Amino acid sequence: MFLLAPAAVFLLGAITASFVGVLVARLHTGEGFLSGRSRCDACNEPLSASSLIPVVSYCIAGGCARCCGARLSPYAPLTELLLGGLFVLSYLAIGPVGALPLMLLSLSLLLALVLYDLRHQILPPLLLAVFVLVSAMTGYVLAPSLSSFSSTLLSALLIGLSLALVHLLSRGRAMGLSDAPLAFGLALLVGPAALPGFLFSFWIGAVIGIAVLVRRPRGSRIGVEVPFAPYLAAGFLLAYFTQWNPFIFVAALQ
Questions:
Q1: Distance, CA of 26 to CA of 11 (rounded, Å)
Q2: Quick one: which of 90, 146, 151, 208 is 20 to 30 A from 190 by CA?
Q3: Shortest CA distance to 180 belongs to which of 134, 232, 138?
């Protein structure tokens, strides 16, 4: 019985991630995401219900499409596992309280933003605005007091303004302007973990950026555009769910 609730939450997250993947693939294409059957990316054949079970269908088929045998991308089952895991972590961290649905909705919107950024290297304004609004509601409900939420709001504003300043000073070369409201929303969502999350985002981005540079062909001078939304999401969520705070170690050394 103890594992029943986390298992149900994980299943909900996996199903939600599958829907989010469809939404991102069809957004701004003129194709509705609430109607129309899903099709194979390789042969455009309509997929059966047995091919749409999150994670399970991919594993049973051995990572290949049943209709044509084409090799399937592992991104869909990985995102389903990821969001399912984040749903479980949220359930364990918050518990079955009124704020949990808001947190799960925030994570679902965040996944949509990250996937869209990876695909198009841009964040859709409407989806971003909804994420910020829901994150603000989540942070407010989770805050132990109004003064605590006020502190979170101040931190979020400083983080968002700092990224907007980076965008302006670099004339958009270092960072997109939409990363600023995304970081603002993430800071509202994670509350006291905002500043550690902001720091982790840059650490993660630096490590992956160095890896990308190392793998480039020698003598190549072509710039590589890397979306920053995944790093922001990873850093803030890492700080929130682990409660790691590097500033404590810095203070201890003084």
A1: 23
A2: 208
A3: 232
Tell me, what amino acid is at 249? Answer: F
As given in the structure block, the two tokens for residue 171 are: 């004339």
Amino acid at 34: L
Domain boundaries, the chain: 1-96, 97-254
**Model pTM?**
0.88
pLDDT in tens, 58-80: 788 777 777 776 787 788 889 99
Q: Please enumerate in sequence order all residues whose Cβ is within 8 A of that of 32, keeping only pairs 6 or more positions apart, or say none.
A: 26
Fill in the amino acid letter for 164.
A
d(CA 95, CA 191): 17
- Residue 173 CA to residue 86 CA, distance in Å, equals 32
> Residue 233's closest CA among 174, 168, 176, 187?
187
pLDDT of 237-253, one tens digit each?
999 999 888 877 654 45
> What is residue 127's three-state secondary structure?
helix
